[in-house]
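Please check this record.
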Amino acid sequence: MIKILSKYGLIWAVLYGLLNVLSNQLVLPAAPVIALRPQVALPMLIGFMYGPLPGFVTGALGNIIGDGLSHYGLFTFWNWHLANGLMGLIPGLITLYPGIRIIKTVWEFGLLEAAVVIASALAVGVAVTLDVLFLHIMKFPESVNAWILPAFITDAVNGFILVPVLCLFTRRIAVTLETRTIMTITSLLVISILSTSFTITWAVWDDLKSISAMIANFYFAGIVTIVLLVIGFGSSIFFVRRITVPIIHLTKAAELVEKGEYNLPSLVPVSERTDELGQLSRVFQDMAHQVHEREQALKQKVEQLQIRIDRKRQAEDVAEIVETDYFQDLRKKVKEMRKT
């Protein structure tokens, strides 16, 4: 029963709701009901682990439970319930197409992180649109700093950082050369960008003339942080693939040579590089060609030796037959028959 409830997101929804109650005590500056919510990574993780529907249930039902226990009302902010559901649903879509279950490559890791950021942006966009159309709770432009930016920044940054960590602990990320490299670079990128943003914000905080200016500066720094994270992460994926893809091609080529296959077309683009990897690929191709030629020469010598051995055995067999008494008697009878 517990396994079924977990599979469909019901248990995770309860956990998400309880975590929302705890985090609701950490309200962000100028945001009346938007809190610092690291637990937003949970519905994203459940969506990736079990699929879009469990992810949606975890986010939507969990937010209902959290609002109810926090005395906001079960359906006062129903648009945000849908938004939280979308944050679990969208990462789950990559399990359907292209059907990723375990992260093994840089490309798959990048797709997961992109799904997290897109889910955060789309969820906030849907919540704001529904409020404008039906609820009319938000007031513009005040709600930009009171609702929109706090929700998007916290959800995107928390998801970007915590979802890969949770995937690693739940063994949804295979530890390969690609994943180790991209996670290391991503960690350094996050630390450097966040520390720089906090340092700059702290340095100019006392120089700002009003509370509204402080708040605007705080959220502007958050937006800059997300933009830099996205740009830096995209660049990291490009450069990591430039390093790891040739190594993977070399590894697969070595496996083919081990199986006796010496035609290695996958190394052609690697050999065209002018760096050390290109040189290694060219040396490897030359070695494979030499091994192939030596193997062919060895096979030819073995065949020639086999022919000689077969001829020698044939001569020995004939000599053995000729020397037998039966053959000698038969030979005498043939001679006698020829004389008559």
User: Anything to note?
Assistant: Residues 211-258 form the longest helix (48 residues). The chain has a mean pLDDT of 86. The CA atoms of residues 52 and 93 lie 6 Å apart.
